[in-house]
Predict the structure of Core-binding (CB) domain-containing protein.
Amino acid sequence: MAWAERYGKQGKWRARYTKPDGTTGSEPGFRTKRAAESWGNAEEEKMKGGDWADPKLLGTPFETWAEEWYEAQDLAETTMSNYRSTLDSMILPHWVGWGTGSIKPINIAGWTKKLRAEGYKPSSIATAHARMYTLMEDAVDNGYARKNPCDHKRKRGKRSDNAPTSSEEEVWTTPLGALLVAERCGVLGGRDEDFLFPLTIAYTGMRLGEAIGLEKRYARAKLHGLIRVEWQLVEVRGHFYRRPPKGDGRRDIQLPPFLVDLIADQIAAIDKNFCACDEPHDDRPREYTFLGPGSGHHRRSNYYRRQFTPAVEGMRPVRDGERAPVYVSYEESSWPGAPVVGRNSAGRAEAAWLPVEPGLTPHGLRHSHKTWMLEDHIPEIAQFERLGHTMGGIRGVYSHASDDMRQAILTGLQRRWEESLSARAAISPRSAVPLLDRLLREHQAAAHLKGSVAEIAKAG
């Protein structure tokens, strides 16, 4: 049974009660002895019912609990980095100073509303809410909160704008769209390799980190017509780490005929393609199939800013609060144009790039690859195998990818590539990217020869 003690010159009362661990808890500030005893007895009743939390823990500053929670996580470097980013940008700025146990569902609703007003995407808000849910669920388990304020079922209609609360659909593109984006990357980067890199992602379905981490010894195009996804390079706060593919998705990816030749040529063209990182990613330096300028790896932010986003959207990154179009000039064989930079670039340019597929990302090329397989009616088990996924349940036990399925994938990809070349040649027969310019000329010559043979056969 709880009891009360008098303290201070004002004669207030302090409630005293026995905690589950046998120690004595206290709560000051009561005007009467009866009020203090009543409060203490109520706390002990909560203990008996299993619905008790230490008031001192409930009052722990949220930022203190959040840091303790974060330090206790034991996850992959990229996951920890993502957690840190979400905490610092979207969670802590709002909840600093709050008692962890004082947060209510109405406060969570106000927080997500504020994030929307600040312009965060629905997918980012959903991620932050999921992180907050986990954080508060662990707070309940550790006595810092009585209930999870994020675990609250909505009992009213949808918001008027019907904004989604989960991740948005990933943008994907057509084979021609992938070719146009790759060509622009080649123009912006100034190397055939900058054209081949996104094209390889689109026609293999690799993740960006898997493509960045593709070592020369695993690019077995010439001998075996495939590449081996054995590792990926993950970037965490400016450093690259050599790690297994996500979900341990090690796999062989067979290449369509055109890509066999392009990857083989790329491997033959590079010599001692070691990265210029200050420290090896593990025990020794390694040679890579694709490197950025200066033999560095493509850093995600730099690659998006310098090549991929301008190629996709036709707009350069924000500078002085504004985004400028990619201005270009045209000369013979220079389509899609040579970028014009520097002072009065708009006045000196002849045109500006239009968007290809706004919102497309390198991961969107992986989604495109998946979509193309769906359109070609490839069995799901073969899609899973190619993308490095594991099919669960009884289907995964009794389903197997066959050689015929894999060949159907390659046949469909080769057809799509040839159709995209024809569509690209219809726009302009030449390209400012030397590799694509050669491919276009060869494709048109082959098409012309095929047409001539058909005419001769028809005449005969």
Remarks:
- Residues 121 and 168 are 9 Å apart (CA to CA).
- The first strand starts at residue 3 and ends at 7.
